[in-house]
Amino acid sequence: MELVSLVRLEGVAKHVLLPDDTRLDILRGIDLEIAAGDHVAIVGRSGSGKSTLLNLMGMLDAPSEGSVAFRGEPVRRMRKARLDRLRGRNVGFVFQQFNLLAGRTALENVMMPLGYARGRDFWTRRTAATRMLERVGLGHRIESTPEQLSGGEQQRVAIARALVRRPALILADEPTGALDVETGASVMSLLDEIASEADAALVTITHDLNVAARARRHYRLDAGVLTAFALDVPANAAAADASGLAASVEEGTATSGDADPEPRRAEPGPDGTEPKHAKADPIEVAS
Amino acid sequence: MSGLVGALGEAWSEIRHHKLRVLLSLIGIAVSVGAITAVVALSEYQQQQMTEQSDRFGGRPATIQFMANSTDGAPMDWEAFGAHVDRVAERYEFSHFTRIVDPVMLPLQTPEQVRQVSTRLVDPAYPVIHRTPLLEGRWFTEADAELASPPVVITEALWEVYGSPALGTGFALQIQGDVGGSYTVVGVTPREYIGDEDKHVTMLYGDYTARRGILPPDMGVMWEAWVPEDMAADIGPALAADLRAGLDGVDVMVSRTDWASRPDQAQYAQTFELVTGGIAGLVLLLGGLGLVNIQLVAMRQRIREIGVRRSFGATGSRIFSSVMLESVVATAVAGVVGIAIAVAILKAPFVLDMFQGMQDIPPFPMRAAVIGLIAAVAIGALAGFIPALVAVRSNVIDALRF
User: Fold this and answer.
1) Which residues of chain A does B13 touch, with a Cβ-Cβ cutoff of 8 Å?
2) Which of the residues A85, A190, B36, B108 could staple to B280 if both were Cys, CB 3.0 to 4.6 A apart?
3) Is the ipTM of this complex over 0.85?
């Protein structure tokens, strides 16, 4: 069965002009296709252009070269307001620093995206937001402000906010970056779970290979160039530190562990198409 | 619909969230809106007071007055001229028409002595035309003609000579001389200013002539008609021509006496409103500048929030209208507070003391409230425009990274 392409980046490059008139290439020749229900991880060092790539996929930014298409429609030709609405309807963001609205309750934060919806979604936003908060296990904290929530709880609120409009694409930028390993793992399982429930494509940007390992496809971004790589994390690799894992990514090789011989990524389909979404076994990150 | 409701809801939630900032930024707006509203209202009070005062002297707009005297200095035959006036007036069908003789000196028996009091002879239309206020009792009615004891209205100072007795309990003046008899007091007019000791009687012209016969020829009679203001310019010359027609040896003078015929007073009121309103407007503008300033700083702090909202589907126009509405809703609230302050000021006893003797205290003028609210909303829109523009132009990517 042919996969429905959600976002397609073709030959995308992004560069900016520095004050001294030199050109800084952030991204070069990126080709990437995200299908509905896909789960992709992009790893790379700080400053490698991960966030820029995420912004391009989320239609927050326009490429300098190449094209970005959402559901086959080139984004470049769309009017700004339409693009904003398209993004609001189809894309959910999860940020490293949560980016919850300070002073506003969890419920208000989760209701916020629905405030930009129309019709029924708009008028029933309170119920939908409450239900979503209950889904992430915060039904008892809906009146709490971010200041009264722990980091893990804040990220759960952020996940509820990203998913409340049932987007087709969730873009998570270092979602566990501000959390400890254990909390990060539970937040990631929740994100995975809800994304699969909603059949939403999940793109995670991370430098944590444990987080990356949850995805079915893995890419490495280095100096603006995106390359696919196979990643396998052994189930008992909980103690493996990020630097060690990062080193293996640098080499661009797939690592395999003794304890878990099954690779975590799905194999390409027989006809060469991208793999269909299949729920991956969760990787135990914490021991 | 959902867009507007959403933007309004967002603006209101922002205001609630930033209560202190909003409160501080709006003090100036509330005070200046209060000032503008109060100035407009006070100016209306002042105009009302001036109008009432000048109505008392010159009649309401438009009052046409005419008098006559003989060209050769011979005594006027008031009966003949009066009949001529009645014939002319009949054609004009004046709704309010009065004869005035002022003053006629009459000997009055007071508790201590017999004294001469100046008396004004009028028709029942006089207090309407002159908007003469009453402290107690009532003015003349048509039914008064039937009374055996003719009615009179006296001034407060004269009333006090008798110890301010209750009206309607048989309190009557004992007038002596040609028109001597008992005159029932039906009303009392208040003092026109503090220390006003004018002891004056107002009596119906008909009652005087019924007892006296005809008016002494050395007295002057004036006639006044209250006519629609827009027709005064047409009626005046026509009336003058009609009154003069067929008369020999009588000079008739027709003039308009109400304040509206003298633009200087209206101009004075307008100048007062312009100057004080201008000052309040400047204060409002300064308050608006303060608001722009605070909002601009707030925008810098809220840049990340705006970025987050944009990433969740808020369009540029939605962000613009939310920020703009935030200002407008806030200043509208401040405006309502300002108007409430103005109402409180105008209801304060010391303000009403300033306008002593005002007969019809105008209700809180809607014009003032509307002007105040419009000013508040306008300054909100002006003050919200620049921050809204800044908010829309902020780069989402930078905002998220900020």
Assistant:
1) 104, 108
2) B36
3) no
